[in-house]
Inverse folding.
């Protein structure tokens, strides 16, 4: 999940980059910013200069503070130093524009006036300020916050006097020196220190005075005063200079620290990762301090305007009486639910509810706010769009349309496509998970939660399932031979392979929960034991896996199905009564209204097809015929075909397979009820169908009545160094045309059969792995010949087309030639990624992590399409294909079809459809609708 | 060899296609050809209408007959029906233009006049004609020849009378019916017949009359007459019609058969293969018969104007007295050397010598002629450019420049580049080969001849060589572990793998003789036995291999080195006295004068480098550093590095490798004497360096003092499904930057070392398998840092550059980005072919044959670059790379650099150099020069 989010943000960031960059180019050169009349400081408070649209200049935090002030919310006054100053700072040897100081002085004067305090006052209440950084987007790695700036030995006395609270005053001063000393003056732990220096002083003092570690709140005013003294000494020793006493020097120092942090390592790494240009710069926010810790009529809290977990329209958050904001999140005291504020401070609570309403009405989205109540007066310190779960996002969006806050298109955009499968997956109860022991982490390959007894081979898994057990098929990696075991299992767990490995691919297609590539697992097939570190689990022990997070837990955890899935697939009537289902159906209705790109499914069975149609698929984009060969006894006929040493032998075996395939296809056509089905002819290397252990080979020899040596020899002959680049795809049926012939016959006879029953069949026969037009010519000729034969024999007129999968670069590069024969292209972006990048999806485990860490890849290219490289081939093929055949049908099959970023790419390059596993269909539909809406809005 | 020739012809054919096609488009529409005034018939003889330039209209044979007539050579008169008639024939429902008959009548009349005979004469000597097809290029599959046309029951009597030779006359008639019946009337063996029908009649007659099979020449006139009778009956039975008696009907029938054969299956397949358009059509040549079989003053012969085997300027051929042309080549009687004609028919011989001189002077090339002497009078029946060996081509070309027949540029073009290695390879004596028993055929992978005792593993091969034995390393396939064995061997023989397999690649680089992929070989490593069919060869038995043809022979055959190789590498003084060496040097001098594309070499050792420079390489295009790790004890340090589980462990092992690498590089720089060397950092998957048998793993465990389980685990961890697409190339040093660091240090320290000795070092550091700019950035930063460190430490200024190999499609597609960092691109077209086509070079064996048979591939794409697909990526990368960095250095490394067609492609797309194995350097230089000359001439 992380990588997808990352990719999405990166894309968003990139988009954001381009536009401002263009605007900047049109502007006057940057040096102009040094002129005296440039406004560097934007005040907010009773009089506010900025607004929410000025994010680029004021940063996200500054712009929202200004906006809150504009709409009359109680924001402590302050000002924002613009991002242009940051740029100036770096363009001019870390100096400031001349007029900055005077502009800040004016702004501080406004604050003093509004608050009735004075910056650095030695008499009366001093103005203390908080200094915070604030870039266009919130950015980890940058300087956070300095509170209570403006205090020194004199003003602390004034504060004591004004508040009549010496403990409070000295605590503020002590905290300020600690923060400033750390962040601005760099008094930090050296490589040999195991404790922060200021914390070390506190700890020493506590032991010295109390003989033990006491809690901070038990320290007296005198204790705080002593700590201030010791802190100042520490600063002097470490920096060679005294702690700055001039509030203006403190303020300039803090601003400098904010700007300086823009170029620290962590911030640069982050910018590089998300493609944020250094020219953006950060703003500095200076805001009057308000105090939630001045007594029982004060407090601080954080809240969401609605419940971000389940989406309920209820004020949701927590607060602490007599505390500052950081105390609420620090977890030292347990905060109270925000609703309880009604009893403690009914006036402030009422005010807060008004703020909540105003914020939502104004920002038209759920807000995440921070507030402080100082002696009964409410102050809003921050607002931003609230993060939310998929369930909450769905309810928010639907509710807000009802409330006429947003329109339906915005509602569609408000649901993150890559989180939609959270709504569809069975889930563990959070409480149970907390109690469970996590033993490993793999890749989240098939969303949902599953619990079951582990079995290490397919056969035993099938038996266990027959006995009524819940099974987790647990293997080093899976192969087509494991198919029956996968069907029998609740979930699939593998130690090797990425998110596009066989296990992941098949699991998603079946809608099975799957965690793959959990490298900590050591599996001993012989002893039937799974080892993780020192723990051992034997066959039949319970494990639980979370295919949404990749977590693997010891023991059993209960899982429940999603109402939506239940409604779509089983129990519509009951589900229709639930709001979640209703909302989902509404959302998908809007998607249908918005979308241009169609969504098909990858399905090999009538059951999968039915599911996919229930999810909204409008046809099959990929039927992998080879999966059908693994069911029941068919595999024996398939093996007989492979082991035959003559055309006659192969034909005899194929004849046995024909009725099976025909039946399968007929079932699929019936499920489709007239929707099209792209059927791919045999694709995988033949060795995948043969048994590889001596035992199995002996069995097969007995079954087929041939020598085991013959089987061993054939397995050896079929061995390849790089099977991915070997004897597979159409190469098989170029060598053995009788295979293509049998498959075409099965398809067309099945079509004829269902058509006679009045159901339209629309097969699209797809030739795999075509790199040369001639390959397609040869195969297409067979298909057409067989179609004609079936038409004549059965007396029907078939509706079908023949096309190819574009999955090797040469296919894309010669698409103009290939389109002379191909009636459609389906992009096999899995294999196209493997060949374009020269990376086998099964072998990237050893370096993909490092590649993402080093930012070479922003996302797993097998999860989200590499738009720069692979995308170029897709675009080339589209252009060339259309040049030859303007109405060529274009789609994508393979796992990228279920990835939102890839779906948007497919929309943008103008494909007609994407195809993905049934359980990803809703995700793809949502992403496709979003792409269409975004495109419309960009116009 | 075949495939290369094929590719070359295909290219030539394609070129030939384009131009006429354009011309045709400018011409008036084809229907114009139907007009009455169009000339369809071109006579030759005393008065000749055509000439040699009219190939397109008259076909090759017709044009050359006209040309010979034009220059006064004694050509039997005749005429050519133009290719336009063929086109008309197919455009108009197999009918002829109206005026054709009258034009033919006129032409026949001319022939009658010149010969003093009459077509279909019943009195006096009848005019008999030969009818032959003749397309622009000679084309197999088309109708060949019908002789003696014009005979019927009446004219045979006239012929008997005129020649006073009934046996001759009836023999002519009998042969005519047989040929005409077969070719024109289609009286051929049915599917159940095992003998041609006419031959069956002859055999039956012989047994009937003589009770046994007697030779044809013992048949009497009466016998022939009887056969004529039976033949005519046969025709009647088979076709339902009598044999045509009207000479004009016979003539029209024969012409129709020629035109008909233009569209037969074989001809169509051939045209498709070589891209010859159907519109070309064929001409029909009708020529007066002359007879070499009329007695002792008659005869027939075939001859070359110079010796096509060794190039000597001597008349070379054979003749038979009292025989027709077909008898000379049929092999029933043994012909005499043409020189003996001087004694038998001195006048004709003298005349023939004059013809020889005239032909060469006129055609400016060695001619292959057919002649007939009829009663002392010489007739020339055909001339065409003679086929020749590489040795002959060299001598012809040099001699003809001396004789001022051609200029030096033409001389360069006259040497087929793909045959040049014949001149450099050691060769078996032809007589010995004839006596030897061929047991298998593989792919010709390293030219030359080698004989030795077979050994099945590297270690035993090395031991045997140390004992002074000549060794043939014989393996199923080779891997880098076999390197020492390959060095020790005279030649390498493998049962699996293509012309770009490891064995082939390394063999060519070393200049070793190699036959690979000889699939008939069954090797049992355990029993140390090689089985071919029923024959068994044990370790130490002699085999001989011809790496130029791919043949494998039982037993020992002596081989001798080429004088040229000997002169270039060893014994220049002696070689300089030989004409072959002188000629070679002269040719290469011309090549140097003509060429634009430079030729570098792939070399890993000083010895290889020296060889390559002797062959004319101007630098190294590819040093594969990993090969260096297999020598001596280095492999242990390498293995230690791979097995280390920490950075420190790896660094420790790398420290051991550093001095070895530095020494290697210093040696290479010294050999290069200032020429540049592109050095590729570590590329292959690490598992290639680890031992794979339990025994070897135990050994290694002992050597390194670690547990064997650790080694087994690491081997298992490094196992990959598709190693070609796995953890290799720069992916290794992205994960373990210390490897790149060590290699860079070794390179630069070596450079500093030799520079201090006054020798310039010009390393070009190449980062392999780059698909993302960032990969290159990371690696380049390491290289620059190390360079700077070495410069400072050693006090030298280094001259070097850093670039990358473009070998995955993504690298080519994002070449604009990559060129921001890369100072040069070297196209790794081996891997680029594998990824672009999705075909592993090691795994194409199972379908490549079928693909060539089906014409999907015209050549092995690993031998000759796929210009349409891979070529497109190369062109894209060049264009994009130059856009970013106009002076980017562009080259190609990998085996395509030694393939003439690929070299020409590289010239045409504007690369700066190709790089190939040392022994291919001359081939590449010749091809590069030819490309430059062809380009100049095309302007």
């Amino acid at each position: 999940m992380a990588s997808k989010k990352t990719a999405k943000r990166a894309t968003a960031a990139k988009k954001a980059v381009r536009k401002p960059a263009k605007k900047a180019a049109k502007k006057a050169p940057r040096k102009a910013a040094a002129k005296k009349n440039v406004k560097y400081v934007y005040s907010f408070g009773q009089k506010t200069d900025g607004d929410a649209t000025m994010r680029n200049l004021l940063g996200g935090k500054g712009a929202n503070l200004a906006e809150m002030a504009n709409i009359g919310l109680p924001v402590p006054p302050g000002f924002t130093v613009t991002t242009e100053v940051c740029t100036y700072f770096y363009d001019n040897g870390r100096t400031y524009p001349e007029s900055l100081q005077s502009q800040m002085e004016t702004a501080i004067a406004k604050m003093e006036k509004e608050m009735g305090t004075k910056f650095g006052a030695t008499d009366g209440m001093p103005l203390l300020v908080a200094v915070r950084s604030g870039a266009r987007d919130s950015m980890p790695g940058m300087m956070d916050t300095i509170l209570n700036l403006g205090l020194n030995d004199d003003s602390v006395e004034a504060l004591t006097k004004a508040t009549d609270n010496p403990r409070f005053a000295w605590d503020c001063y002590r905290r300020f020196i600690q923060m400033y000393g750390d962040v601005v003056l760099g008094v930090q732990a050296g490589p040999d220190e195991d404790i922060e220096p200021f914390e070390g002083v506190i700890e020493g003092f506590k032991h010295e005075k109390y003989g033990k570690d006491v809690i901070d709140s038990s320290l007296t005013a005198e204790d705080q005063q002593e700590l201030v003294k010791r802190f100042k000494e520490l600063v002097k020793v470490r920096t060679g200079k005294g702690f700055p006493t001039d509030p203006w020097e403190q303020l300039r120092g803090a601003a400098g620290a904010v700007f300086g942090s823009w170029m620290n390592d962590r911030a640069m790494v982050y910018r590089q990762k998300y493609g944020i240009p250094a020219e953006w710069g950060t703003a500095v926010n200076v805001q009057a301090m308000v105090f939630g810790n001045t007594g029982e009529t004060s407090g601080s809290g954080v809240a969401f305007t609605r419940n971000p977990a389940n989406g309920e329209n209820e004020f949701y958050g927590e607060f602490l009486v007599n505390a500052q904001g950081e105390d609420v999140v620090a977890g030292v005291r347990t905060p109270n639910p925000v609703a309880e504020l009604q009893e403690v401070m009914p006036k402030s609570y009422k005010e807060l509810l008004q703020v909540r309403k105003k914020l939502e009405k104004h920002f038209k989205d759920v807000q995440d706010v921070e507030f402080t109540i100082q002696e009964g007066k409410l102050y809003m310190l921050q607002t931003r769009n609230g993060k939310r779960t998929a369930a909450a996002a769905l309810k928010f969006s639907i509710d807000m349309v009802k409330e006429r806050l947003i329109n339906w298109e915005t509602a569609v955009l408000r649901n993150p496509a890559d989180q939609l499968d959270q709504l569809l997956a069975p889930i563990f109860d959070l409480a149970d998970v907390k109690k469970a022991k996590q033993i490993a982490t793999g890749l989240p390959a098939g969303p949902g939660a599953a619990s079951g007894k582990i079995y290490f081979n397919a056969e035993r898994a099938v038996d266990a399932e027959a006995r009524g057990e819940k099974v987790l098929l647990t293997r080093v990696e899976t192969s087509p031979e494991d198919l029956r075991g996968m069907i029998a299992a609740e979930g699939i767990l593998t130690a090797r392979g990425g998110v596009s490995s066989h296990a992941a691919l098949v699991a998603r297609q079946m809608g099975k929960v799957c965690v793959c590539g959990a490298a900590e697992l050591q599996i001993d097939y012989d002893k039937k034991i799974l080892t993780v570190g020192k723990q051992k689990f034997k066959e039949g022990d319970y494990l639980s896996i979370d295919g949404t997070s990749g977590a693997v837990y010891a023991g059993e955890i209960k899982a429940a199905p999603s109402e939506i899935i239940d409604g779509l697939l089983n129990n519509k009537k009951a589900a229709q009564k639930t709001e979640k289902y209703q909302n989902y159906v509404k959302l998908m209705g809007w998607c249908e209204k918005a979308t241009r790109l169609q969504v098909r499914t990858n399905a090999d069975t009538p059951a999968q097809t039915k599911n996919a149609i229930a999810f909204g698929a409008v046809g099959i984009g990929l039927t992998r015929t080879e999966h059908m060969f693994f069911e029941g006894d068919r595999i024996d006929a398939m093996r007989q075909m492979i082991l035959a040493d003559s055309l006659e032998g192969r034909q005899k075996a194929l004849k046995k397979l024909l009725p099976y395939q025909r039946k399968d296809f007929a079932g699929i056509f019936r499920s489709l009820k007239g929707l099209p089905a792209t059927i791919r002819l045999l694709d995988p290397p033949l060795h995948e169908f043969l048994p590889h252990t001596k035992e199995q080979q002996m069995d097969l020899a007995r079954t087929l009545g041939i020598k085991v040596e013959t089987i061993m020899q054939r397995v050896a002959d079929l061995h390849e160094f790089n099977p991915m680049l070997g004897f597979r795809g159409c190469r098989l049926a170029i060598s053995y045309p009788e295979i293509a012939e049998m498959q075409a016959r099965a398809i067309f006879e099945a079509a004829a059969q269902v058509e006679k029953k009045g159901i339209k069949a629309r097969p699209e026969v797809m030739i795999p792995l075509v790199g040369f037009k001639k390959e397609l010519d040869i195969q297409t000729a067979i298909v057409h010949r067989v179609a004609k034969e079936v038409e004549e024999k059965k007396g029907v007129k078939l509706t079908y087309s023949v096309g190819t999968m574009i999955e090797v670069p040469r296919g894309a590069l010669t698409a103009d030639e290939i389109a002379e024969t191909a009636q459609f292209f389906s992009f096999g972006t899995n294999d196209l990624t493997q060949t374009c990048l020269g990376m086998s999806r099964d072998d990237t485990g050893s370096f993909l992590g490092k590649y993402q860490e080093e930012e070479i890849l922003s996302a797993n290219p097998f999860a989200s399409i590499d738009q720069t490289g692979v995308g170029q081939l897709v675009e080339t093929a589209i252009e060339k294909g259309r040049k030859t055949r303007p109405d060529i049908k274009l789609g994508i099959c393979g796992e990228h079809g279920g990835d939102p970023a890839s779906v948007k790419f497919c929309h943008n390059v103008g494909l007609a459809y994407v195809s993905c596993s049934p359980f990803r269909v809703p995700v793809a539909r949502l992403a496709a609708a979003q792409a269409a809406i975004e495109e419309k809005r960009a116009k």
Notes: The longest strand of chain B covers residues 377-385. Residues 1-34 of chain B have pLDDT under 50 and may be disordered. Chain B touches chain A through 51 residues (CB under 8 Å). Chain B is about 45% helix and 15% strand.
